[in-house]
Specification:
It is a single chain. By secondary structure, the chain is an alpha/beta fold. The chain is about 45% helix and about 15% strand. The chain has two domains: about 100 residues, no CATH class; about 140 residues, Rossmann fold, CATH 3.40.50. The N terminus is likely disordered.
Length: about 250
């Protein structure tokens, strides 16, 4: 079965309930999967929140349907696509990581997510030679029909996206906030270019402003989508090295 919701967000009840479960407070990809495995369906899992909170001292809280409906309506107005993990168009590569995002929102071309990708990440304060090198590598990868994937950060990420676009290739920006939140603001024009010629991707709700804990979640999607990862001039204890470690763990 195929579930792609770009022009209409009238989700079947089971998909709607799963989306509502994933958007619940205290529920991430791993807890989502465990709840579905334990209870068999999202609506049953949601009905058990009170008991789970008492028994395990959790703070699970389901959002009102009105809030879910507003997000779905806004996705539709933006022309965004909602991909569900059991959708045949969901990127296969992400299904092999242990914390697969159940839903992805895509602003741009969702078909790019299923094409062969190479990630390029690195220092936000990279040197000019490193930026030029990144631009060149991105361009050469696109000439070989790879999609260049990165995280839209300043420095190396931006150079990777620009190199891909300047060569006429395709690029994917996986963002730590909502697909509607431009971060960093310096990349406003680049964000719009990628949305037009590539894809902006996130698992986070619309309107989400990225915080520090969101970036590792973004990084595992960047590496999970990609066949390999270039790390350019990364600083110690940087998010780029986290991405490299995740890439190694994901194989």
């Amino acid at each position: 079965m195929k579930f792609i919701y770009s022009t209409s967000m009238n989700l079947p009840d089971d998909i709607y309930n799963k989306f509502r479960l994933f958007r619940a407070q205290g529920v991430g990809p791993v807890i989502y999967r465990k709840l579905i495995e334990k209870y068999g369906s999202a609506d049953v899992a949601i009905s058990e929140f009170d008991q789970l909170n008492k028994q395990y001292k959790k703070k699970l809280k389901v959002l009102p349907k009105a809030i879910i409906d507003v997000e779905l309506e806004n996705l539709q107005k933006m022309g965004a696509t909602l991909l569900y993990v059991e959708d045949e168009s969901y990127p296969v590569a992400l299904q092999y990581i242990h914390d697969t995002p159940p839903f992805l929102t895509v602003l741009g071309d969702p078909s790019l997510l299923s094409k062969q990708q190479v990630a390029i990440v690195g220092n936000r304060n990279a040197s000019i030679p490193a930026m030029n090198f990144t631009n060149k590598i991105a361009s050469e990868l696109c000439e070989k029909n790879y999609v260049v994937t990165s995280g839209l950060a300043k420095g190396i990420d931006g150079a990777a996206h620009k190199g891909a676009l300047q060569s006429g290739g395709s690029t994917i920006a996986v963002v730590a906030g909502g697909v509607d939140h431009i971060y960093p603001p310096e990349h406003k024009s680049l964000y719009h270019e990628i949305a037009e010629q590539g894809a902006i991707v996130s698992e986070m709700p619309l309107g989400t402003v990225p915080t520090q804990n969101h970036f590792p979640r973004r990084n595992r999607i960047v590496s999970g989508l990609s066949l390999g990862t270039f790390v350019v001039e990364a600083a110690k204890k940087s998010g780029s090295l986290i991405t490299a470690r995740l890439a190694a763990e994901q194989g």
